[in-house]
Amino acid sequence: MRRRAAQSAVTVQVFYLERWKQKMIVELGKDGFEEYTKNIFLQGELFHSALESVFLCEEIATKEKSKDGVISGYLSSVEHVLEDISEVKALESGVYHETLQYLGLVDCVAKYRGQLCVIDWKTSEKPKPFLKNTYDNPLQVAAYVGAINHDANYDFQVCCGLIVVAYKNGSPAHPHFMDPDLCLQYWNKWLLRLEEYMDRN
């Protein structure tokens, strides 16, 4: 029953990917967009894999570290943020909000400066020093917070979020902390967005 419901549920990413995709196709053309996304997803995959190794206290494979320097800059970028992260509770973990029928994959749940957060790792070639520069990412984090708090698979509650924007050139990442009030604001926006999506489909 739960599996069938999950298969029919809306994924959080659906809202954001389609809008971004159309914008990029206009800018790069279809072929250019396909090449761009292939490289971006490869970098993102390697970066997330390397972070998972760090949190699991494993040594990052030398091959992975030096592979054309693809992720070395990103890892250098987040070093100062990693110092403030402790007590990892979940990594690359599926979440499902049964009542609202949506699901997603959370990058990380851990404490940031003592506050339990849903942590979303982002890579960027452009500086994103302010939360508003992260577009819909805060909505995504709020959606994950809501899903975790309504998913019986998790025996804890989360009320904060953290979006970490890492840079390819190794410059210090921008961590954007979302306190409970801010998460609640974005949660309410997410509910409106979800309602609009459901009305259209």
TrEMBL record:
Metal-dependent single-stranded DNA (ssDNA) exonuclease involved in mitochondrial genome maintenance. Has preference for 5'-3' exonuclease activity. Necessary for maintenance of proper 7S DNA levels. Probably involved in mitochondrial DNA (mtDNA) repair. Its EC number is 3.1.-.-. Keywords: Exonuclease, Hydrolase, Mitochondrion, Nuclease. InterPro entries: PDDEXK-like_dom_sf (IPR011604), PDDEXK_AddAB-type (IPR038726). This is Mitochondrial genome maintenance exonuclease 1. It comes from the Eukaryota. The gene is MGME1. The active site is at 107, 120, 122. It is found in: Mitochondrion. Belongs to the MGME1 family. The keyword Flavoprotein does not apply. Residues 44-154 form the PD-(D/E)XK endonuclease-like domain.
